[in-house]
Specification:
The protein has 238 residues and is α+β, with helices and mostly antiparallel strands. It has a domain of 153 residues. Helix content is 32%, strand content 25%. It has 5 helices and 8 strands; from the N terminus they run ααβββββββαααβ. Strand 3 and strand 4 form a beta hairpin. It is elongated and about 150 Å long.
């Protein structure tokens, strides 16, 4: 049996300290609320698709529909037409409208390119004809008709096909448009486009000669069907 001396006892290392107790970390619970909501949404849309495949008439309850609740148009007046629309011309006009100022265009100024589409008709007025406008021969085989010269109507703008192609506004114009109404500027474009289209119809369009020819052919066909063999249609000088 050995003897442990004091020197040997001091040389031996001290016994290890017992391990400290660490409480277990709490488990993080998954976000069951979000998972349930996601599953519910997937189930709803998946169920809708499945039901639509099984029942074709089933519609998605979340689809929005546009409902027109406008009432019927109100008839304001009726007029008897006494004009023959003998020809119609279709026109396209590019309106280049600029608003200049002493300041740079980037500060104050506006440029608008407007593509206008419209039409002008050539009509013959039958309302002012008197008994002397139609001369018939004694044997009722020949007729001579004198009509007023065709005239052009005001230009009718096709707003569904007319559009603003380009528009540049200065800084002050952009600020002013935030507080103002562009209805007045739009009306100016429409009026200017109608004036230019009518001017194009009046110069070199050929609407008046075409209207005279169409009116002559229409009356000749009508009177020949009534037994006339010779029909002459003349137009009053301008």
């Amino acid at each position: 049996m050995g003897v442990v001396t004091p020197e040997r006892r001091r040389a031996e290392p001290p016994p290890p300290a017992p391990p400290q107790y660490e409480p277990p970390k709490p488990r993080r619970e998954p976000p069951w609320g979000l998972i349930t909501l996601g599953i519910l949404i997937i189930a709803i849309f998946g169920g809708v698709s499945w039901v639509k495949g099984v029942i074709p008439d089933f519609h998605n309850p979340f689809v929005q529909h546009t409902v027109d609740r406008s009432g019927p148009a109100v008839l304001q007046s009726i007029q008897d037409l006494q004009e023959y629309h003998a020809a119609s011309g279709k026109f396209q006009q590019v309106v280049d409208l600029r608003q200049d100022s002493p300041l740079p265009d980037s500060v104050l100024g506006e440029k608008t390119l407007f593509v206008a589409v419209g039409s002008v008709d050539a009509v013959v007025d039958f309302s002012a004809l008197d008994s002397g406008a139609v001369q018939v021969s004694n044997n009722r085989r020949s007729a001579t008709i004198t009509l007023p010269r065709p005239r052009l109507t005001n230009a009718q703008l096709d707003v569904s096909r007319s559009y603003v192609y380009d528009q540049d506004r200065g800084l002050f114009n952009q600020i002013g448009s935030l507080f103002g109404d562009d209805t007045e500027n739009q009306q100016k474009l429409y009026v200017l486009a109608q004036q230019k289209i009518l001017a194009s119809a009046q110069h070199g369009s050929g609407l008046i000669p075409r209207a005279e020819e169409n009116t002559r052919l229409m009356l000749q066909s009508l009177l020949r069907a009534l037994g006339f063999t010779s029909v002459s249609v003349n137009f009053e000088p301008t």
